[in-house]
Specification:
The complex is a heterotetramer of chains A (510), B (665), C (486) and D (102). By secondary structure, chain A is mainly alpha-helical. Chain A has 21 helices and two strands. The model of chain C has no long low-confidence stretch (mean pLDDT 88). The chains are: A mainly alpha (510), B mainly alpha (665), C mainly alpha (486), D mainly alpha (102). Chain B: One of its GO terms (molecular function) is NADH dehydrogenase (ubiquinone) activity.
Chain lengths: 510, 665, 486, 102
């Protein structure tokens, strides 16, 4: 059981899908509870894995490999395992999904399908984080595409079709680039090993790229091109300017629960892929392009923040804030320091919770007020004090207030970028200082938004709005508590991550 | 007990948590929860202080985060400085808690108020106890959050909401500098612990340029938090918060955190002469400009706010001129008398039905004896009259400015001291002497620039007729307070704190009085290498007294006696007056220089995002579709066209084979 | 070797099928021309399945008849695809025919059987004449089938377009063939192939023209751009099951002969045509996908989709000289995948468009509410066509992609994958209609006939199984003796 | 002896004429006839190669017979469809049959 734990975890939601399919769609409450139970079981499984995860041990854990199928000499394996990088994200996925299922209890339209797609999505996301075979990774990566397309397309807002298609085609393009790159990597590694070895294993691939039998094959140009292609593929998902434009559309139109998952987990797949594949397999190229990545990170931070500042729709404000926050991830990984790398991973996790909470709050407020336009809101602290309070807390977490998880990641990322070696990023200090402006801008747009929505005189039409329902407390308290726990005592996360981070960074020699 | 110093912040935290979860059931009783929490904290603080004076010390840390080989720890530590600060914070916080019991009792959200106060006390005490500068920063930000929450406590007032945002954002600018400074410092020293940082500084591990940069960045944090020029603009606006909050946060404790920060990082600053100069000049300029603005303000709280800025400038000036003890000593005394003044102001405001304009007051001496007397003590203390607390500390600051050798700084300090005495007594005389000018008109100065836009609060309130229960700070006090028109003394909940603070304002100065042997100095500098502390000679004390006396006399002549017309200076130099009334137009300048362009850039980028970045994406989509559509035009239903296309296609293929490949000739 | 020495038993499946087709024809005569005849449909399916079993059995004795007719692994797989395909088309047709009484059912089935026969002969042929005969049996049957709704204006218009353009294409093929014959003196592909390098050296212009004429003709049959113009019109006008037939059976059989001709005839001179094929593949993928984006008619959309898919299938042909058997494996795997997903999709389309009375895309509106099973199955088919993972289409495409990269056709591989992403758009617009649009007010729950749901189920199962465990099929391919002639 | 190139040229010319007819004539019967013309040009080719080609043998003539047969079948089907079309549309003008397009 222990060694197949990950497999159980990944495919458990599919069992849930089968169970849900057997329930008549009229039994809405049964379906809802079942979905919650299934995701809860996944959450418990992931926590058991978390508990059994050995700290301070380098390398993979819970790893298994099984031959899957082959096309000619191409052997495809079912190879999974986790390390300190994927472990937190795995738990993040189950938590955010479980809470988003709680958050979606207010959905009344086509309930059965909703949970089927959510659970399929859960399998895809978990699979992405455990897959160690590139082909498998790609499969799971793509598997997340369709459920999200449906979640946006069926339960979305006015422009749902545009948004869902844009999401599908845009991120589909990213996946296509990723696939091409994987194939290129495969062939180059094959060639580099003098046609003696074929592998899709990320682990083996990293070894081959580090120490090929035939170094002439893997020239700097080839590796550089591969790295850039990987970067673009994941940049679309993360998203990185200028590949970000699908995100606001998708977020604004998606239903609350889907937004939570989209911002909470799906974007993280981009960052995860970048670290796992880009930095894990091609550390030298990552170092070579570190400056570019750092600059893009800064652009993301500033650009996202500036756009968030002028949004008129609360949800798109949060969406742009996601773009801004993902810049921190880029900044952290580009620094090639343990702190920066850890900051990036912290940011992935922390933003997962915070953005999910923000989207949930926006969704809850929209559900009551029927508007997301900032200028039409106001005085919510008066009409729905609990919701407004959590909204404010979420905004503060997003601002990066110490004691909440966002601060830790920002701190680490900044320590990273300022500590970046001169040989990797020449103008690290300048980049860091510009990025710091983003902190002010973040505070500006979020506080301004809070001033205009939760503060101010209460609007006539918002009198008597119902405040938070008991079921809504689950995601609100859950997400905020997690953010606080990580913010107050980040050690629980850092002792899981640290060894892996040291491994990644040590590949470039410090 | 010193091992249990962690209890000091924990009591308010528990109070906060209790009020957060059960506050709505406690209502007014919430106040007692808060008071109890702070009371316990205060008791523990006193015990800790005595043990500390006895020489005990204690540090406790746990691992907070690990990355690579580095570990950051968190914990608590008791040093002389923070032992002193613990007393100041818990004491002021306690009296403010007590004061608020009466001041806020009509507010339906009193439990929320007390929970915020609890959170603030927790954060401020955590800040003080921090054993490393990162932990300090963490609590530094948390007190900022509490300030935001408390300034915006009456969030339904647009001005309060705006002020809260402004307070948070402006200090955030400084905080970013501080954060960067810490980050660079960490990368240089590998630690956030004070000890290791100072060791690195002493051993010259950091080069001078970087050291100066770090010091200045850290100082940026202090500038923001302690409302120093040019980031002082938030503090006057923060007066939108309830008055007890102003007393606690925006006079006694949080705003002093910047000074405290410079204090705890003092060895770092000492190592960089450039940084010290910048610190000194910032302090001096702030002290002076804030004082000039305080001269003309007519809102009682704003006068006090500018006075606070000015006094904080004094402290910074002292630190910048090597007067380590002088600055921190003034921090302590100021905490007491400024809290006293604010609470006194609160008492007055409460009594005059929530008017804040001093032109609507007057003649309160006889009506509110305790308030008036304590207010007078506070005013005397801040003016620096012997033997009150302010005298001792201000004298030391002047000494430090003088002995630093920069005559300019000394001159500014002296002029500012004069202005301090003047504007405080202007305030005192206008408020407590003469005829009571309130009662018969509602808000005569609503459009007066002196009250400025924030005075429009009562206009905004008209939009919210439903806020009757919450917006008690603005409603006619008839049914609320039980006193209709004539102001009268408030209950013991309000006067007791005044008396406590007044006593302290009288005696606090003696802890470092020369004739008692500079006890505080001996306590504070133990184990620290902060250089010899400057002490003035006797003539300086007399000069200081004379200046204070001059200021008081001028105020007396103008506002009590009427010997000089009140608008004497205003009419002589209307331009200057207007400039001061409008606070040097700094707010407008900031809006024009920073806010508007940022928003404009944001708009521009947004347009660009929609039209170019996303435009290209959509264009690719559309053009693909357009290509498809144009291709499909070929399918016109005519089979002969189809044939023709195929044949032409075939010919093209032949041509391709012939020409491009070139194989076939 | 004379004709009488030959091992005629190799032709058993064809002979049996011909006999059975005639039997069906005869029974039809005897039962009167009008009316519903479900038993004939069943009989036809049985015939095809019997033939398929025979095909499978005869494979153990691979060989050839006088360089004219070969039985080898390659032929077997194609024949199985054809037979299963036609069987599924018939199953789809049964319900369709009951709704369209103008169609004479007996004739319809027997002609379908004859077309299957033609396709089988075609893929087994090793001789230009056999090849031509097979091709024409298939083509002429197809002309008839397209025009089967003879009182229907679209159907007859489609038929006349098809017959004229198809005839012209045949003429092109023949004209090209005539030179091959003339310059080698043989119609045997093996002989031609052996002589080919010398021919190209001696008569390069003539051979080029000959090759390209044949390419134009074959290109027409497999509808590659720019010889694809007929396809959308004919697909749209034809009875829907026939559209399925054309887009699957006819096309795959066409690929069969293209491969035969390429492998046997032109492989020695691959340098001359590989680039042309690659360019045609690229153009086909681009144009097919681009036009498909704009389509609102399901059948027409599927026609362009089919064109695009033909482009994908051309890629391994361009990679053939480098990849050899692997290329064939790719083509066959993708053919099987294509057969299943396309026929599955057409099964749904047939039912839905017939029920709605229009083949507009909007007829799919709210299908999920009307028949969840069909909608989900259709989604799987479309996802597979789009090439998303865990479906046969993905594995097929991935293989082709691998092949293309291995063969240094990276640019083609990139076009292919980008065009796959473009195809998301129109495949998912079906899905959008099914799941995200409310059904029209008067649309009731859809009754799914057994035959049709059988087709859908089989197609669905195969699509998913091949997507998850492609080795079911791939392992068979590795054991095959592809070509008996070499 | 007449060189084979003449036959081939004749065939080519016939093929082109046929093709031209297919592509330009508006009368469907003539279009069908033009296809026959193209097929017949193939026949000329085959017969010429069969008789005086570099590798003259009988296969070409056999091929020709098949082509003729198939052409007949094709013409039959074509005409049948043409009649059906005429019944439906009352016209056998090529350019009027464009219901199916775009």
């Amino acid at each position: 059981m222990m060694e197949n734990m990950l497999t159980w975890l990944v495919f458990m939601p599919l069992i849930g899908v089968v169970l849900i399919l057997m329930i008549p769609k009229e039994n809405v409450n049964v379906i809802r509870s079942l979905a919650a139970i299934i995701s809860g079981v996944a959450l418990i499984l992931s926590l058991i894995i978390w508990g059994g995860f050995e700290r301070g041990v380098s390398g993979l854990q819970y790893a298994t490999t099984t031959e899957w199928f082959n096309i000619g000499f191409l052997q495809f394996n079912y190879e999974i395992g986790i390390d300190g990088l994927s472990m937190p994200l795995l738990v993040l996925t189950t938590i955010v999904t479980t809470l988003s299922i709680f958050a979606s209890f207010s959905i009344v339209k086509r309930v059965k399908e909703f949970y089927v797609w959510t659970l399929v999505l859960l399998t895809g996301m978990l699979g992405v984080f455990v897959a160690l075979d590139m082909f498998l990774f790609f499969l799971f990566f793509e598997l997340t595409l369709i459920p999200m397309f449906f979640l946006i397309g069926i339960w979305g807002g006015k422009m749902k079709e545009y948004a869902s298609f844009k999401f599908l085609v845009y991120t589909g393009l990213g996946s296509a680039i990723m696939f091409m790159t994987f194939i290129a990597m495969f062939f180059k590694s094959y060639e580099a090993m003098n046609m003696q070895e074929t592998t899709f294993s990320m682990i083996r691939m990293a070894e081959i790229f580090a120490d090929p039998a035939n170094p002439e094959v893997l020239t700097g140009t080839v590796k550089g091109a591969i790295f850039l292609a990987l970067f673009v593929a994941f940049a679309i998902k993360l998203p990185v300017f200028p590949f970000h434009t699908w995100l606001p559309n998708a977020h604004v139109e998606a239903p609350t629960a889907a937004s939570m998952i989209l911002a909470g987990v799906l974007l993280k797949m981009g960052g995860y892929g970048l670290i796992r594949l880009g930095f894990g397999i091609l550390p030298d190229q990552a170092a070579r392009f570190a400056t570019l990545i750092a600059i893009l990170g800064v652009i993301n931070i500033i650009y996202g923040a500036l756009l968030a500042l002028v949004q008129t729709d609360l949800k798109s404000l949060v969406a742009y804030s996601s773009i801004s926050h993902m810049g921190i991830v880029l900044l952290g990984i580009a620094s090639f320091t343990t702190s920066g790398m850890q900051g990036a991973i912290f940011q992935l996790v922390s933003h997962g919770f915070i953005s999910a909470l923000l989207f949930f709050m926006v969704g809850a407020i929209y559900e009551r007020t029927k508007t997301r336009t900032i200028s039409e809101l106001g005085g919510l602290s008066k009409s729905v004090p609990v919701l407004a309070g959590f909204m404010l807390a979420a905004a503060m977490a997003s601002v990066g207030l110490p004691g909440l998880s966002g601060f830790v990641s920002e701190l680490l990322a900044f320590i990273g970028i300022f500590g970046a070696s001169e040989s990797i990023i020449p103008a690290a200090t300048t980049i860091g200082v510009i990025a710091a402006i983003g902190i002010i801008l973040t505070a500006a747009y979020l506080l301004w938004a809070m001033q205009r929505t939760t503060f101010g005189p209460m609007k006539e039409k918002f009198i008597g709005l119902p405040d938070a329902r008991p079921m809504e407390y689950v995601p609100m308290i859950g997400l905020l508590a997690l953010s606080i726990i990580i913010g107050v005592y980040p050690h629980i996360l850092s002792d899981v991550i640290n060894t892996t981070v040291i491994d990644i960074v040590s590949k470039i020699g410090g | 007990m010193i091992q249990n110093a962690w209890l000091i912040p924990v009591f308010p935290l528990i109070a906060f948590l209790i009020l957060l979860f059960f506050g709505r059931f406690l209502k007014e009783k919430a106040a007692y929860v808060g008071i109890a929490g702070l009371g316990l904290s205060f008791i523990v603080s006193v015990m800790v202080l005595f043990e500390r004076i006895g020489g005990e010390t204690y540090t406790y840390v746990i691992e907070w985060i690990t990355f690579g080989e580095s570990t950051i720890t968190m914990g608590y530590e008791v040093t002389p400085l923070n032992a002193m600060m613990l007393i100041v914070v818990t004491l002021v916080s306690l009296v403010v808690h007590i004061f608020s019991r009466e001041y806020m009792h009509d507010d339906k959200r009193i439990h929320v108020f007390y929970s915020y106060l609890g959170l603030f006390s927790f954060s401020m005490l955590g800040l003080v106890l921090a054993p490393n500068v990162l932990q300090l920063f963490i609590f530094w930000e948390l007190v900022g959050l509490c300030s935001f929450l408390l300034v915006g406590f009456w969030y339904f007032k647009p001005e309060a909401a705006a002020a809260a945002k402004k307070a948070f954002l402006t200090t955030r600018i400084g905080d970013v500098g501080l954060l960067l400074g810490l980050v660079i410092l960490f990368n240089q020293t590998g630690s956030f612990d004070y000890g290791e940082i100072f060791a690195a500084v002493e051993n010259g591990l950091i080069n001078d340029t970087l050291l100066t940069a770090i010091a200045l960045l850290i100082f940026m944090g202090a500038v923001g938090k302690s409302a120093q020029f040019p980031l002082h603009v938030w503090l006057p606006d923060a007066m939108e918060g309830p008055t007890p909050v102003s007393a606690l946060i925006h006079a006694a404790t949080m705003v002093a955190a910047g000074v405290y920060l410079v204090g705890v990082m003092y060895p770092l600053f000492l190592a960089s002469p450039t940084a010290m100069t910048v610190v000194a000049y910032t302090g001096a300029i702030t002290a002076f400009f804030a004082a000039t603005m305080a001269l003309v303000m007519t809102d009682i709280k704003r006068v006090l706010a500018y006075s606070t800025i000015s006094q904080l400038g004094f402290m910074i000036l002292a630190l910048g001129t090597a007067g380590y003890v002088a600055g921190l000593f003034h921090l302590m005394t100021h905490a007491f008398f400024k809290a006293l003044l604010f609470l006194g102001a609160g008492s007055v405001i409460y009594a005059v039905h929530h008017r804040q304009d001093i032109r609507d007051m007057g003649g309160l001496w006889g009506k509110m004896k305790i308030t008036a007397v304590t207010f007078l003590i506070g005013s005397l203390a801040i003016a620096g009259v012997f033997p009150l607390a302010g005298f001792w500390s201000k004298e030391e600051i002047l000494a430090s400015a003088l002995l630093n050798g920069d005559g300019f700084l000394f001159a500014i300090a002296l002029v500012t001291a004069f202005m301090t005495a003047f504007y405080m007594f202007r305030l005192f005389f206008k408020t407590f002497t003469g005829e009571y000018r309130g009662g018969d008109h509602d808000d005569p100065h609503a459009n007066d620039p002196g009250v400025e836009a924030q005075g429009a609060a009562s206009v905004a309130e008209a939009d919210n007729p439903r806020d009757d229960s919450v917006d008690q700070d603005r409603v006619p006090p008839a049914e609320d307070h039980g006193h209709h028109d004539a102001p009268k003394e408030n209950s013991g909940f309000m006067t007791f704190p005044l008396i406590v603070l007044a006593s302290l304002a009288v005696v606090a100065g003696f802890v470092n009085a020369p004739f008692l042997g500079h006890q505080l100095e001996g306590f504070l500098i133990q184990g620290l290498n902060v250089g010899a502390q400057p002490h003035g000679e006797l003539w300086l004390a007399f000069l200081s007294l004379a200046v204070a006396g001059g200021g008081i006399a001028l105020a007396w002549a103008m506002y009590y006696k009427g010997a000089i017309a009140e608008d004497f200076f205003a009419s002589k130099a209307p331009g200057v007056h207007k400039l001061l009334i409008n606070k040097y137009y700094l707010d407008e300048v900031y809006v024009a220089v920073f806010v508007r362009p940022t928003v404009a850039i944001g708009r521009f980028f947004w347009e660009m995002d929609k039209s170019i970045v996303d435009g290209i994406v959509n264009l690719i989509g559309r053009s693909t579709r357009g290509t498809g559509r144009s291709f499909s035009r070929g399918h016109n239903g005519q089979l002969q066209t189809y044939g023709l296309v195929s044949i032409l296609g075939g010919l093209v293929v032949i041509a391709l084979a012939f020409v491009i490949r070139g194989y076939f000739g | 070797m004379t004709a009488f020495d030959a091992n005629w038993s190799l032709m058993t499946p064809e002979i049996v099928l011909a006999a059975l087709a005639l039997l069906v024809f005869t029974i039809d005569f005897m039962t009167g021309i009008h009316g519903k005849k479900p038993f004939i449909g069943k009989l036809s399916v049985m015939s095809l399945l019997v033939t398929a079993v025979l095909v499978f059995l005869t494979n153990s004795t691979s060989g050839q008849i006088a360089d004219v007719f070969v039985v080898d692994g390659f032929a077997m797989i194609f024949k199985l695809i054809i037979l299963v395909g036609v069987a599924m088309v018939i199953l789809i047709s049964m319900n369709y025919l009951d709704r369209n009484e103008e169609i004479y059912q007996g004739e319809y089935y027997s002609i379908l059987l004859f077309s299957a026969l033609g396709a089988m002969i075609m893929v087994s042929s090793a001789d230009l004449i056999t090849l031509f005969i097979g091709l024409e049996i298939l083509s002429i049957s197809s002309y008839c089938l397209v025009g089967f709704k003879k009182y229907h204006r679209h159907s007859t218009e489609a038929a006349i377009k098809y017959v004229i353009l198809g005839g012209t294409a045949s003429a092109f093929i023949l004209y090209g063939m005539s030179f091959l014959y003339g310059l080698t003196g043989s119609t045997s592909l093996r002989v031609i192939g052996e002589a080919m390098p010398q021919l190209f050296a001696d008569y390069s212009v003539m051979m080029t023209i000959s090759f390209i004429f044949m390419l134009v003709g074959f290109g027409f049959k497999i509808s590659i751009v720019p010889f694809h113009m007929w396809a959308p019109d004919v697909y749209e006008g034809a009875p829907t099951p026939i559209t399925a037939f054309l887009s699957v059976v006819s096309k795959i059989a066409g690929f069969g002969i293209v491969l035969r001709v390429m492998v046997f005839g032109f492989l020695p001179v691959y340098e001359e045509w590989i680039f042309i094929i690659a360019v045609l593949a690229a153009v086909t993928m681009i144009v097919g996908n681009a036009i498909a984006l704009t389509q609102k008619n399901t059948k027409r959309l599927m026609a362009y989709s089919g064109i695009a898919q033909a482009g994908y299938l051309l890629v391994p042909i361009a990679a053939l000289p480098f990849m050899g058997n692997f290329s064939l494996s790719m083509i066959l795997f993708y053919s099987v995948a294509y057969l299943m997903m396309t026929l599955g999709a057409f099964a749904v389309i047939t039912l839905v468009t017939e029920d709605a009375g229009t083949s507009d895309l909007s007829s799919f509106a709210g299908l999920f509410q009307r028949s969840p099973y069909l909608a989900v199955a259709m989604t799987v088919f479309l996802v597979s066509l789009a090439g998303l993972p865990l479906t046969a289409g993905f594995i097929g495409k991935a293989q082709i992609f691998f092949g293309a990269v291995s063969a240094d056709l990276l640019w083609l591989a990139i076009i292919m994958i980008v065009m796959s992403v473009v195809s998301f758009f129109y495949y998912f617009s079906f899905i959008k209609q099914m799941f995200m649009t409310e059904p029209k007010a008067n649309d009731k729950e859809l009754q799914v006939p057994v035959s049709l749901s059988a087709v859908v189920t089989v197609a669905l199962a195969v699509t998913i199984i091949l997507g998850i465990m492609p080795n079911f099929l791939l392992d068979i391919f590795t054991t095959l003796n592809w070509f008996a002639l070499f | 002896m007449v060189p084979i190139s003449l036959f081939l040229s004749l065939a080519a010319i016939l093929f082109c004429i046929g093709l031209y007819g297919v592509l330009t004539r508006r009368h469907l019967v003539i279009v069908l006839a033009s296809i026959e013309l193209m097929l017949n040009s193939v026949n000329i080719n085959l017969v010429a190669f069969s008789a005086i080609g570099p590798f003259a043998n009988i296969s070409g003539q056999v091929f020709t017979l098949f082509v003729i047969t198939v052409a007949a079948a094709e013409a039959a089907v074509g005409l049948a469809i043409l009649i059906a079309l005429y019944r439906n549309r009352n016209s056998i003008d090529v350019i009027k049959h464009d219901l199916l397009r775009w």
